[in-house]
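Data availability (excerpt). All sequences and predicted token strings are deposited with the supplementary files. A representative entry, non-specific serine/threonine protein kinase, is shown inline so that the format can be inspected without opening the archive.
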Amino acid sequence: MERVAAAKKFIENHYRSHMKNIQERKERRFRLERQLATSEVPREQQINLIKDLERKETEYMRLKRHKICVDDFELLTIIGRGAFGEVRLCREKTSGNIYAMKKLKKSDMVIRGQVEHVRAERNLMAEVASHCTVKLYYSFQDTEYLYLIMEYLPGGDIMTLLMREDTLTEPVARFYIAETILAIESIHKHNYIHRDIKPDNLLLDKNGHMKLSDFGLCKPIDCSKLSTLSEDEPMGDDNLKESMDVDSSLSETANGRRWRSQHEQLQHWQMNRRKLAFSTVGTPDYIAPEVLLKKGYGMECDWWSLGAIMYEMLVGYPPFYSDDPITTCRKIVHWRNHVKFPDDSRLSPEARDLICRLLCDVDHRIGGAGADQIKAHPWFRGVAWDKLYEMEAAFKPQVNDELDTQNFMKFDEMDNSPPARTGSGPSRKAKLNSKDLSFVGYTYKNFDAVKGLKHADMQRSSSLTRPSIGAIFGSNGMESSREPNGKDTHMHTFSSGDPMSP
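Structure token line:
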């Protein structure tokens, strides 16, 4: 029966993908013709641009038929490692393009109940085309692993920036909080909750602009039928779940502890921050109380996380930081007694007000009516929301070249994690088959990946006198603008899968 269900899913994916590809191709042609109709581009160049698009569409069809595998990439430096896998810098052999490759072990995903999260992560990245989120170029699999090939952002993350700077000035914090709001808004519009907003997942490009990453805990939510997730909805890693197993009956053991000065708290946080980021237990510092209490929760939980990050940017450490995760969870649950500002902190009244309106009860939390509610707060007065990613960033990281990894932690190449228990003989074969069925339709190829392919016929067609689409309309001229559509959100399958491979 399981094989029958998998075959049915494969066929459904095939036809859904085929129809979606036809529609997207029509939309790309329509967008280009609409842009040309309102431009002053000469007629001859317009014809050439349309031919260029047609040529790219042909290359995209070839790419769709090509079965991508890990051997298509040169594996370079490891730039991240977590409880479920690793992220590595890589170079595509055909194009020379540099990407970030996320690698997840299938058996671990099945054993640890992460299949739905893997599906949601891949689907969200395939659906959401935004300059505020990390772009997915390819997803594919082999017998043992799942792979996500994403754009590489060499500027590091906000966590690294905070560790270097201790605190940010309000103008710098305002810039990055504003870009984070746009990123959260972009995934909320597609009916997803991120559920893991934290400085580690806010990456910087070479120019210092922020993009949201790591959608491993994101959850699709059908707003027409369900406004919140149920209390039984799994959050993530079992160890983290156990560390957050708190409810309203917990006593506040932290009440009797001495309040550290801002300097003492900052020193203690810095000593433990990086270790917590890469532990399998993780840190609950940015998780909303309704999530910890296993109540129903919705998109508002991401805005709580934003408030915790804003506090850390301006004060130097998270608002509920403690020596151990359990105490942190207790403080979050009893947030009314712990949202405090150190006497030596110098925050504007507007900044304090916004933090307090984010770190509050879900029924009164700003953002419950949408991101525009937060954008209208006085702290953001003067922010040009539609120009944020066009202006100079508040901080520019040092990046020497496209392979520069100086803004990331160093990792050993040796992976000392114990191998997953997959058994042996016939039972092992059966388990592998069952495991593979969980990931039918995982393959994805982004149209934008065609731009860097170096095929002979594409090179022959290039001309110094023919401007590119991007040169005329800007780098985002032909960026896919996939509109949010609840119908494309699949809870139990992969959307936009490649029909030619699993």
